[in-house]
């Protein structure tokens, strides 16, 4: 989607600029031409009136034409480049400055005669009887209060018309130059506007098809530059949202795939056992074993559903904690007693270290027990013929209780230590098949619960030597003076 050159802003701006300049210069030229013509005519008329008065000064002592009189008129004709007529009180022309001109006997209009006799100069553009266009003026002929007639000066309009024509030609060339200059400036300005608009149009077209990689590169700091910056920022946001959307879709897809896989295995086993029992392929003495296996598979599916439910509630912030002081050492002792039979069955010793100053954590006791239950269960599962140590101690400088779960199990590889908190992630490298079968949600739930307690969790581990999980939960004493500051870190050493 690009701009149509026939309807583009470039063409509109060029057309409007050129038309505006053309009309403006034409109007200015017309006004200047009219005022210049009037100015030239008035200036020439005033000059001719002064010349006519000079003629009068030369002949005012002569009341009748004679040869010397005509010689003076001829002299002034040559000096002023103007025809000179003399008329009497009746308006009759009595003599002229041109020897060959036959105008004696012609009459000046009564209006002009009356105006001149009254002592006022007269001027007009065309004298009757003259073929050539003339500018004419008339002044009284006489001395003091004695008026003998009038003096008329004629000057051709041809020279003035040529001057005005040259002025109009100059205005025309200036107009053409203005149009050319306007075309150049308008082209540049139009290009500077339409180029970024075309880039914005191109970017918008890519946004429409879901491509947010385009960026508008405009150096100007005007409104269009600000618009381009805003669109670039919008595209970055859309690109980020699109990536997050794809990531969420991938997580959703992986989640459904993992749930389907986790449910398919026990369901397939139960289906096979039920078909065998239904067909009578299982001997009477072996049926109890098959029933026990199916029962354990249903327990596994129930645990998976419970874990998924807990994880979804945690991620949606739907779980509210019941805050109170919790004796962490007492809780660890109870859990050690709970898992001791399972650990001893694997040849593992589990014990908890006791401190005289038993630390009090500010937490939800049920959820805190769920955290340590998952950690200890994992330690027991992946430790054979080893030891598991549970320890809790107060860290007043950090206003927290530090709880560690240390085992001497198979450990976690460095590349897997950052992934163990992901949903359905299972560390299978180097582990025997009998360790498989967990849902992969336990540590994800642990992390969510720890963060819900405003804590942190971390793990330290080395392959073949074991793991140490460190959990920091807010110290109860720190709550006595307001809202606690909690730092939680988890370290695991498999």
UniProtKB/TrEMBL annotation:
InterPro entries: HAMP_dom, HATPase_C_sf, HATPase_dom, His_kinase_dom, HisK_dim/P_dom, HisK_dim/P_sf, HssS/ArlS-like, Sig_transdc_His_kin-like_C. Residues 258-477 form the Histidine kinase domain. It is found in: Cell membrane. Keywords: ATP-binding, Cell membrane, Kinase, Membrane, Nucleotide-binding, Phosphoprotein, Transferase, Transmembrane, Transmembrane helix, Two-component regulatory system. It comes from the Bacteria. Its EC number is 2.7.13.3. It is an enzyme of class 2 (transferase). It holds the Pfam family HisKA. The chain crosses the membrane at residues 13-36, 170-191. Residues 191-243 form the HAMP domain. Gene3D superfamilies: 1.10.287.130, HAMP domain in histidine kinase, Histidine kinase-like ATPase, C-terminal domain, PAS domain. It catalyses: ATP + protein L-histidine = ADP + protein N-phospho-L-histidine. One of its GO terms (molecular function) is kinase activity. SMART domains: HAMP (SM00304), HATPase_c (SM00387), HisKA (SM00388). This is histidine kinase. The lineage of its organism: Bacteria, Bacillati, Bacillota, Bacilli, Bacillales.
